[in-house]
Design goal:
By secondary structure, the protein is an alpha+beta fold. The protein is built from 6 helices and 9 strands.
Length: 221
């Protein structure tokens, strides 16, 4: 794969589908920009569908499994994305067994899909986890008061929350009891698969990131 000269600034999101001259002029550097622009938009725009990508892990049997996560932060330099999770959830056990993971983004306005592949790690304690907990809104913290682990069987539809916090935001000292169930999920991607969908012909590229360089190649869509 040839090395790509990456722009110093992540470009803005396209305002619509790439067609005509815009499509024909796409370069591998543009595809790198899109691979970074979609997750950045998700982090910075809470109303964007890119805020909630699909996150894939592997079960103990080696089968892929998916769920939606809420992006919380992005460090483009280290290619690190973060999300919050319940430390008792299945995905935590799956990642501690096998850290390979992927994120899938799709922007309906520009008709662009980005799949990021890499490895994830779970932080339950430490400065980063504590800082993430402090940054969480009270409504987010309340979710970690759920009594049983996520995915536990239930005889009836339930929120899983204790009765005293159902339907309300409890005081800070009560919310703090959920800290033991909170974890920070860190995902670092090493590869991106970028697809630009177009009525006149799609474009697709594979991008690989390393500490030394960014390389890429065009793929048949």
């Amino acid at each position: 794969m040839p090395d790509i000269r990456v722009r110093a600034v992540i470009p803005p999101m396209p305002s619509g589908p790439c067609e005509g001259e815009v499509l024909r002029a796409l370069t591998l550097a543009d595809m790198v920009g899109l691979a970074l622009a979609l997750p950045r938009e998700g982090v910075e725009n809470a109303r964007s569908p890119l805020r909630k990508p699909a996150f894939s892990t592997l079960t103990a049997e080696g089968a892929p499994t998916l769920r939606t996560v809420f992006l919380r932060s992005m460090d483009a330099g280290s290619r690190r994305l973060t999300a919050f999770t319940d430390a008792r959830s299945h995905k935590v056990a799956e990642l501690e067994r096998d850290p390979r993971a992927a994120l899938l983004f799709y922007d309906p306005l520009s008709d662009i899909q980005v799949r990021l592949a890499g490895r994830a790690a779970i932080c339950r304690t430490g400065e980063r986890a504590d800082s993430a907990w402090e940054s969480a809104a009270p409504s987010s913290r309340r979710a970690y008061l759920v009594m049983a682990p996520p995915g536990s069987p239930s005889a009836a539809p339930v929120s899983g929350l204790p009765e005293d916090v159902e339907g309300i935001i409890p005081p800070p000292e009560r919310l703090e009891e959920g800290r033991k169930n909170f974890a920070l999920l860190k995902f670092i991607f090493k590869e991106a698969d970028v697809v630009v969908l177009s009525r006149s012909g799609h474009r697709r590229a594979r991008i690989r990131f390393s500490a030394a360089a960014v390389s890429g190649e065009w793929l048949v869509p």
